[in-house]
Amino acid sequence: MDVINTIGRRKSSVARVYMSEGKGAITVNNRPLEEYFASQESRYYVNLPLAVCEMEGKYDIKVNVDGGGTTGQADAIKLAIARALVEMDAELKPALRARGLVTRDSRSVERKKPGQPKARKKTQFSKR
Q: Is residue 107 part of a domain?
């Protein structure tokens, strides 16, 4: 097996994943996963597709991620890893789909409208 290359997006984050057979090392932007993501929750989300397919410790994963914050980056990496697993073995797709891991979350920040303080917030209405 050679390197599998996939992409994942969430909010304004873009993650490129390079997955190859190995000992289970995950590096994000040339740093170990534990060093890059301080929160346990973000690390859990990154490992979720591997845990669902029971593939933890079988693949080395190199990730380049850019844009957004930690939550968006973790979700983008999660989607990219799930896509890489499906590309490697199509029979894993139903298990990943049951957990909602192969669907891209299209929610993003709504744009600010002119004449308003924020996207939906409006100035106080004055009758007179």
A: no
